[in-house]
Amino acid sequence: MPKKSALSELKRRLRGSVKTDADTLYWKSFDSSKLSFPIEAVIQPKNDREIGTLLKLANKHKVPVTTRGSGTCLTGAASPKEGGWVLDLSGWKKIRVDRETGMAYVETGAVLENIKKRAEKVGWYYPPDPSSKRFCSIGGTIACNAGGMTGAKYGVTRDYIYALEGFLPNGEFVRWASDVRKYVSGYNMKDLWIGSEGTLGVITRAVLRLIPKPPLRWTLLTAFKSDAKALAAIRALTKDRIVPAILEFLDDETVLCAERRTGKPFFPGVGTTPMVLLELDGYKESLERDRKKVLAWAKERGLQFSETYDDEEAEQLWAVRRQSSPAMYELGNTKLNEDIVVPLRKTAHLIRFVNQLKKETGLAIPTFGHAADGNFHVNIMFNRGDKKQERIAEKAVVKLMKTVVAMGGAITGEHGVGLAKSPFLKFQHNKAEIAAMRAIKEVLDPNNILNPGKIFEPYIVWQKTPEKVQLPWDHK
Ligand SMILES: Cc1cc2nc3c(=O)[nH]c(=O)nc-3n(C[C@H](O)[C@H](O)[C@H](O)COP(=O)(O)OP(=O)(O)OC[C@H]3O[C@@H](n4cnc5c(N)ncnc54)[C@H](O)[C@@H]3O)c2cc1C
User: Is the model's pLDDT at 1 over the cut of 70?
Assistant: First the structure.
């Protein structure tokens, strides 16, 4: 527990920016993992100077500091595991789009969807598209290197960051790169910060790369006879050099969840089958050319399909993706939501393994994901409180992680390590790799004040009971 004198000094130096009321402390004590840890203060800084002061004080008194944006993180990375102070940057929301250069200048707390809308209003496009875009902050997406739906065609957050500004853990101000299109001066510290989950610095501002907004989109939902047929069809598309903006695979268990929720089958007559949801975007001529090829592909390989250029109709096809997650809780009260990634040549192998795991464990494991990235959400459902199921689920997740690594994949493709994946880090990295990462942390943060207890220290999340609260992004 930090010394009382630290808090008094903090309050004195950052007058008006320090909150200690029970309500604020509670709601900032966890992220979307709902793993709560008691904290002493929440700091909502008014300016840069206050952030520098806060970090210097934290170093002086050895108080842990956890930075947070919107708190949508699923891994517990923004849950303040070691307590102390939470630096809440959700109020830093300014956005300016430079339509001449195609760059956006944003403060860290700006909500992703607002940035996307502001860019699109003037014909530009910010492609990263996590499903949490209505809520998550740009700073959080940078700290997690968030991915989302559009990865295979457009890449992930890292591909759209020109420059970052913020503070080192010791409270010194730094600027990594600037609003230039090329920059190779010194080490690439910008990219070291991206995806470092708030352990190496505090991001305050970013310069984003925008691209021209693709004017048209076309959506297709196709039912397949089996997982194997769906995944083989996806590989055939890639071989034909068709790169959809979105290409989501959904296994039959996931489709069943969506159908339960919508109350009707997507394709009456073919039953509940695996599906692929696909979107092409671009200019009319090239889009039409690819559309014809994709339609022939769907006819040849699929059981049935539905296509549209219309946004409202597309939304009905999207129901298979959007409505599946809420219904999963009918299969178990707890979800281990894994976001593993495997090489593209191994996707069919992975899904075969998951199907085998379902049989072995007797658990429901609805699986869907960004198939063109090899990035799948494997949702291991079990009932917390049922000791037998808890043990089976734990074994299943360990087996999944080991298998993914053996396939040449990764334990996380977009959510990051945080607390949830920390027990599996040793499967992914050898001792030398972990030592190199820790050495960077120790040099930049010798007092280990910034987001301590994350990534490197194994923490068993399923042994801690999450808070029973409804968050704005939770499915109703
Ligand atoms: C419904 C739902 C859907 C999701 N879908 C996706 C998806 O499709 N793809 C995907 O990649 N993720 C997804 N996520 C996960 C989550 O939204 C992302 O990880 C997002 O990037 C977190 O942003 P945030 O502002 O909520 O960050 P927070 O949760 O507040 O923080 C996340 C991490 O970033 C650090 N951090 C935050 N701000 C800063 C800063 N200014 N400086 C330094 N570090 C900082 C925190 O310390 C923490 O480690 C989803 C989450 C939910 C709840």
Answer: no
